[in-house]
């Protein structure tokens, strides 16, 4: 089984401890820079408090600060990535273009923008607007135009649909934007091989690490928040 290295730290610091050219695949889900935007909307925050990322506290930078933080992330990502490695970064549809621009500046080759559709999203304000049920993911390769792509001869669409998290994936505690294991499994299986090293510098509750371990990949994970880090550690250990 693969090994895991976990840092409870700011990824802008911890990334510097990772060896250059050592990572095969990054699967990550950073702040989407929607916190301030959502706070300024006329929504009922009290009802949403427990599961609303705008109040979670990690997504409250202004746009320029966020762009700077994404620049720092891609700059370090370029250093730690192996040539031919890949990145899957989840993002809000509104911010995809900004991320593509930054990634290209640091040598990443833009491949695809895809959609994750949640079959059973929280029906917030369902009588007022279209219920939000999608997030984007962006796929890059590093310094090459192709990389590992284990499609086994199947046509793979740029669209994936899952249910939101089952209870069994939350038994060590809740994270407000936890991704389902099935979603992450899809990317780790297709874009890496056993014994490869996977990195998630914004690991939250550790979903990427859980999947990496199940698929016999090595994992490096970083999370700033002490409580989410503790959930991630327990999930990955188990
Ligand atoms: C969208 S969540 C990731 C959720 C994760 N995919 C999961 O399945 O649980 C983003 C996470 O990044 C963390 N974070 C934000 N800024 C960070 C930083 N500079 N360094 C490390 N972690 C950070 C937040 O605390 C949050 O848990």
Features:
238 residues; 8-stranded mixed sheet; 8 strands; globular; binds S-adenosylmethionine
Describe this structure in words.
It is a single chain. The chain is α/β, with parallel strands linked by helices. The chain has a single domain (4-237), classed as Rossmann fold (3-Layer(aba) Sandwich). 30% of the residues lie in helices and 23% in strands. It contains eight helices and eight strands; from the N terminus they run E-H-E-H-H-H-E-H-E-E-E-H-E-H-E-H. It has helices at 11-14, 35-39, 45-48, 63-80, 96-105, 181-191, 207-214, 226-237; strands spanning 4-7, 23-28, 81-91, 108-118, 134-142, 159-162, 197-200, 218-222. An eight-stranded mixed beta sheet has the order 1-8-7-2-3-5-4-6. Strand 7 (197-200), helix 7 and strand 8 (218-222) form a beta-alpha-beta unit. The protein is globular, with a radius of gyration of 17 Å. Bound molecules: S-adenosylmethionine. S-adenosylmethionine (SAM) binds at residues 10-12, 29, 31, 58, 175, 177-179, 202, 204-205, 207, 222-225, 228.
Layout of strands and helices, then pairs:
Elements: E1 4-7, H1 11-14, E2 23-28, H2 35-39, H3 45-48, H4 63-80, E3 81-91, H5 96-105, E4 108-118, E5 134-142, E6 159-162, H6 181-191, E7 197-200, H7 207-214, E8 218-222, H8 226-237
The structure holds S-adenosylmethionine (SAM).
Brief rundown of the structure:
The chain is 30% helix and 23% strand. The chain has a single domain, classed as Vaccinia Virus protein VP39 (Rossmann fold, 3-Layer(aba) Sandwich), CATH 3.40.50.
């Amino acid at each position: 089984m693969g090994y895991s290295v976990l840092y409870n730290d700011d990824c802008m610091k911890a990334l510097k401890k990772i060896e250059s050219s050592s990572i095969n695949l990054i699967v990550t889900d950073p702040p989407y820079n929607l916190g301030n935007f959502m706070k300024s909307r006329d929504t009922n925050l009290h009802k949403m408090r427990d599961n609303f990322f705008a109040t979670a506290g990690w997504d409250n930078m202004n746009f320029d600060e966020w762009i700077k933080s994404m620049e720092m992330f891609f700059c370090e990502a370029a250093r730690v990535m192996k040539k031919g490695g890949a990145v899957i970064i989840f993002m809000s549809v509104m911010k995809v273009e900004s991320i593509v621009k930054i990634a290209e500046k640091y040598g990443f080759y833009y491949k695809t923008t895809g959609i994750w559709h949640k079959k059973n999203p929280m029906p917030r304000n369902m009588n007022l607007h279209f219920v939000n049920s999608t997030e984007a993911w962006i796929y890059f390769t590093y310094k090459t135009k192709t990389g590992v792509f284990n499609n086994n001869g199947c046509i793979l669409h740029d669209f994936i649909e899952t249910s939101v998290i089952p209870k069994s994936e939350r038994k060590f505690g809740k994270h407000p934007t936890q991704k389902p294991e099935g979603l992450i499994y899809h990317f780790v299986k297709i874009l890496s091989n056993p014994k490869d090293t996977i990195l998630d510098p914004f690991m939250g509750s550790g979903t990427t690490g859980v999947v990496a371990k199940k698929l016999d990949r090595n994992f490096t994970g970083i999370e700033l928040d002490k409580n989410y880090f503790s959930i991630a550690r327990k999930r990955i250990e188990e």
